[in-house]
C-alpha cells in the first residue's frame, strides 16, 4: 500500500458518521493490501473486474457489479484487468435493526435503475454531508440501505476460491492460474511438482478443493476478465482460457454462472 492509499484510508477512518465519502478511480491498476475501516464500502466496477479477498476466501466481482463490504471487515482488493475504473462509496450504516443483508459481504448485479442512481450520487462530488445537504444525504443513505433488497444477489459468484492453509498447495494453485490455456490434468500436475497422483489428490481433498471444479472456475473467471478487456471474440477467449471447443466453453460457463456467455455479456 502506497502513501496516498494509506492517507486516504486514514481519512476514511476520521470521516464523520454523517458524511458519505465518494472516490472515483481512473483507468489504473488496482492492488490494495489488507486493510480495514469502520465505514461500509460499496464498490461499483464501472470498467474492469475486481478480486476481493476476505480472510481465506477470494471473491470475484465482474464488470458492472457491486461489492458490498461491511464496516470493520479486513479486505484486500486487486484486479487482473489491463485497466480498471471503480466508483467507491464509504458510509456509516446502523445494522443493529435486524437487517442481516447489511451485515454480510455480497456481490450484486446492477440493473439500469441501480446504475443510474449510483451515477447520480457519484456526480455530487467527493462527499455528501448531512449538515450541508440533508435531503441529498437522506436520499443517498436510504438508497444504499435498500440496495441489498433491490439488487440481484449474484449467488454463483460467492462460490469462489478458498485459499488453502496447506502451503504445499500454494505454488500448485499459482501454476494452474498461469497455465489455464493448457490441458491441465492431475497426473501431469503431480509429476511436475513431485507428488504421486494419490498424494496430490489427497492434498486437494483435505483442503476442500475439487480439482476439476477449481480449474473450471479459474477459467470462467479469467474469461469474464477478458470480456471486460475487450478486443477478442468469444471463440478466441474460449481457446485462450483452455477450452478445446466453444461448445464446451458454453456448457461449463452455464454450469458455473447459470447463464450462457452471450446472456452474461448482455446482462452486463
Strand order in the sheet with the most strands: 10-1-8-3-6-9-11
Total helices: the number is 10
* CATH fold category name of the largest domain: Jelly Rolls
Residues in β-strands, percent: 15-25%
Overall mean pLDDT stands at 90
Walk me through the structure:
The chain has 268 residues and is α+β, with helices and mostly antiparallel strands. The chain has two domains: 3-158, Jelly Rolls, CATH 2.60.120.10; 165-267, Homeodomain-like (Arc Repressor Mutant, subunit A), CATH 1.10.10.60. Helices cover 42% and strands 21% of the residues. The protein has helices at 3-14, 112-122, 134-150, 170-178, 186-193, 197-206, 211-229, 234-240, 246-257, 261-267; strands spanning 19-24, 31-35, 40-47, 50-54, 57-61, 65-69, 75-78, 85-91, 106-109, 127-129, 152-153, 161-162. The strands form two sheets. It has a seven-stranded antiparallel sheet, covered by helices on one side. A five-stranded antiparallel sheet has the order 2-7-4-5-12. A hairpin with a 2-residue loop joins strand 4 and strand 5. Helix 5 (186-193) crosses helix 6 (197-206). The longest helix has 19 residues, at 211-229. The chain is globular, with a radius of gyration of 20 Å. The two termini are 31 Å apart. 27% of the residues are buried.
